[in-house]
């Protein structure tokens, strides 16, 4: 099944549930009409929250840049010793 | 005993290059340093670099032996996806590693990819920057923001099953790579994402290992407006085709 179909199916299920709520009138109708809006807003909040959390916890590795420079020096020495012409830096 | 320890698996490391004269020497040195306990070959697919990348590879073949370093050049720049297909044709290993030549992918992580594959029997082991032990160096806030935004969007819409979609440091069982790459059509930036999403949909066992990513090309943000549009188009394409 194509992925878009899965997502559509979920949306259809949610809509069906919402229409059911409208019909059954277990909660006041004016509230029910606002539910899709809440849904979209909470989806947006979820997205922003995830991006925010991701940014705050963004893993960085400054020490790796230092280690890489050491590795590069080591490799360059080896190339010089073995006569591989890697040219000027 | 030494031969015994090397085991039956052979790893073909495919590295596409374009003007990577210095980097290819450094990366090959590091590959040999970190993989001495394994059977492997490095396949350099060079797209006609004018800077003499191929000369360097030939010199390295003299140092390390031609059976360990294969140079399989192409006449001109033909793109990343076809470079892998080209390299794959010449791969003699039962496992294939694809990695970038610019040293943002450090060969010191190769043993952890291999170890993970052996432990889990996975068909694909993919490097991820976004878990404990992983990380990125050299990105500004804008770059981090775009990266996180793109990732949240893709995780929410595609359910890809891996935490780092656009990372391209991966180990594949050769048969799996051949199978997946034949159904991938995207170019450029979206290519790596399509590879892993198709692999997930096909039901391949995918495992992740943490890697660090040191961006050495400071200042030149690869994520401009047109890349973002390409990314969104790729996302939409994957939504309707996978």
Automatic annotation (TrEMBL), chain A:
InterPro entries: DPM3. Keywords: Endoplasmic reticulum, Membrane, Transferase, Transmembrane, Transmembrane helix. It comes from the Eukaryota. Pfam families: DPM3. Belongs to the DPM3 family. Component of the dolichol-phosphate mannose (DPM) synthase complex. This is Dolichol-phosphate mannosyltransferase subunit 3.
Automatic annotation (TrEMBL), chain B:
GO terms for biological process: dolichol-linked oligosaccharide biosynthetic process; GPI anchor biosynthetic process; protein O-linked glycosylation via mannose. Its EC number is 2.4.1.83. GO terms for cellular component: endoplasmic reticulum membrane. Coiled coil: none annotated. It holds the Pfam family Glycos_transf_2. It is found in: Endoplasmic reticulum. This is Dolichol-phosphate mannosyltransferase subunit 1.
């Amino acid at each position: 099944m194509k992925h878009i179909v899965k997502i559509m199916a979920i949306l259809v299920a949610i809509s069906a549930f919402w229409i059911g709520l409208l019909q059954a009138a277990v909660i006041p109708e004016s509230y029910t009409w606002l539910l899709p809006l809440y849904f979209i807003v909470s989806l947006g909040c979820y997205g922003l929250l995830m991006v925010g959390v991701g940014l705050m916890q963004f893993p960085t590795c400054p020490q790796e840049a230092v280690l890489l420079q050491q590795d590069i020096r080591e490799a360059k020495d080896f190339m010089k010793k073995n006569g591989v012409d890697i040219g000027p830096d | 005993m030494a031969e015994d320890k090397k085991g039956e698996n052979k790893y073909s490391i495919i590295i596409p290059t374009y003007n990577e004269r210095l980097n290819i020497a450094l990366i090959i040195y590091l590959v040999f340093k970190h993989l001495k306990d394994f059977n492997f070959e490095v396949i350099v697919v060079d797209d006609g670099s004018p800077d003499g990348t191929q000369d360097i590879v030939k010199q390295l073949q003299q140092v390390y032996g031609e059976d360990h370093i294969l140079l399989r050049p192409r006449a001109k720049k033909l793109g990343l996806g076809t470079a892998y297909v080209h390299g794959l044709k010449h791969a003699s290993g039962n496992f294939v590693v694809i990695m970038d030549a610019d040293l943002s992918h450090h060969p010191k992580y190769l043993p952890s990819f291999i170890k993970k594959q052996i432990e889990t029997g996975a068909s694909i082991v993919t490097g991820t920057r976004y878990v404990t032990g992983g990380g990125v160096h050299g990105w500004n806030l804008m770059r981090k923001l775009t990266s996180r935004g793109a990732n949240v969007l893709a995780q929410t819409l595609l359910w890809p099953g891996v935490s780092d979609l656009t990372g391209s440091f991966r180990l594949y069982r050769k048969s799996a790579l051949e199978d997946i790459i034949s159904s991938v059509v995207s170019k450029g930036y979206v290519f790596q994402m399509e590879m892993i999403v198709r692999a997930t949909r096909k039901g391949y066992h995918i495992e992740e290992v943490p890697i660090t990513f040191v961006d050495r090309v400071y200042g030149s943000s690869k994520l401009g407006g047109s890349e973002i549009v390409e990314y969104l188009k790729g996302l939409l394409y994957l939504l309707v085709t996978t």
